[in-house]
Amino acid sequence: MRKHLAPVTAEPTAADLAAIEAEWSLLAAELDVLDAEITMLYAEDHGGPTALDWRRLRRAEGRVTRAAADLTTRTDPHRVA
To answer: CA 80, CA 34: separation in Å to the nearest integer?
Structure first.
């Protein structure tokens, strides 16, 4: 039995775009981690990851942590400045 789905709008709203913009640094950092992880997977077929591959992954993970903390402090309504 098919259920009725909410209609999909053709364009994102201004609020949607603002939310994406606010979270973009975190999204970009997460994409860097994904890219580093993919590189690590491919390296397994070529003798294993290098020290540089591991460093790249650790740095990308650090960027995610910093971006998430920054996003939290910018959007936390209970934060005392």
So the answer is: 34
Contacts of 40 (CB under 8 A, 6+ apart): 49, 53, 54, 57
| pLDDT score at 14 | 92
Query: Residue 29, class by beta-carbon neighbours within 10 Å (0-12 exposed, 13-18 middle, 19+ buried)?
Result: buried
Task: Locate 62 and state its tokens.
Answer: 């650090």
Pick from 74, 64, 76: nearest CA to 21:
74
pLDDT higher than threshold 90 for residue 71: yes
pTM for the structure as a whole:
0.73
Q: How far is CA 34 from CA 5, 30, 39, 41, 64, in A?
A: 32, 6, 9, 11, 11
If we measure between CA atoms, which residue out of 41, 30, 19, 31 comes closest to residue 64? 30
